[in-house]
Amino acid sequence: MLELKNVQKKYGSKEALRGVDLALPRGEIVGLFGENGAGKTTLMKCILRLIRFRGEITLDGEPVSHRNITKISFATSEHSFFPDLTANAHRDFYAAHFDTYLDRRFQSLMDFFALPRDKALKVFSTGQKNQFEVILALSQGADYILMDEPFAGNDVFNREDFYKVLLGLLTERETVLLSTHLIEEVSGFIGRAVLLRDGVIIGDTQTEELPGSLLDYVKTTYHYRADRVAKTIEEMEGET
Fold first, then answer.
1. Of 132, 1, 153, nearest to 64 (Cα)?
2. In this model, does residue 235 exceed pLDDT 70?
3. Cα–Cα–Cα angle for 145, 197, 7, nearest 5°?
């Protein structure tokens, strides 16, 4: 179990997270949703201890530290690999440093995305870099896999196929926390939806229990005003 209790984070006077409580059992695929600036990336960075925060984050009852951090992996479109190394060099690095490393999964996903193994990562396209970042996160053998907008730069066909592959390869001990704006795309893929707004969790539900679509749930919880576009256009037209 990955647990967050009263997690708070400030950037100067701005409160990025305000008393977040969240429990993530094993075997879940969780969507983390929220507008830009809601605190999604900050939440993940707190879990990874990349930034200082107030509150408590534990993994199987123990504080997240150098002793258990390898149970958590991270995929981000900001990229965390070594750009001058090849894919195969990364594979050797992971095999040497992670006892849980899954080489068969690495090789299968490299084949799935048709990525070159002997070229430096810096020559990959943006989409290929993001794909490789996901491959590393999934091949580390971590129990908790955090993904922050991992599919940026990938076409819809690659994304759709990857969702299917991911559902097929995850084991019951693995949990994915996926932050994305692609709500409709992932609605049939995730089992739980967590909504952040202004650093506070305002919604947390199992998707199978929703009476309507996931997008409708997000809009309702966020009090989305469908008429605001028409009103803005009307106001601008009144000035001409």
1. 1
2. no
3. 60
Contact 72, 144 (CB under 8 A): yes
pLDDT band (50, 70, 90) for residue 234? low
Per the CB < 8 A criterion, the answer to whether 88 and 52 are in contact is no
For residue 165, give Cα distances in angstroms to 39, 93, 113, 158, 188.
28, 24, 11, 10, 13
Choose among 53, 54, 60: nearest CA to 23.
60
Phi, psi angle pair for 160, to nearest 5°? -60, -45
Q: Are residues 110 and 87 in contact, defined by beta-carbon separation less than 8 angstroms?
A: yes
Which amino acid, one-letter code, is at 68?
N
Q: What is the pLDDT of residues 111-140, one digit of tens each?
A: 999 999 999 999 999 889 988 999 999 999
Structure tokens at 91: 């594979």
Domains assigned to the chain:
2-237 (3.40.50.300)
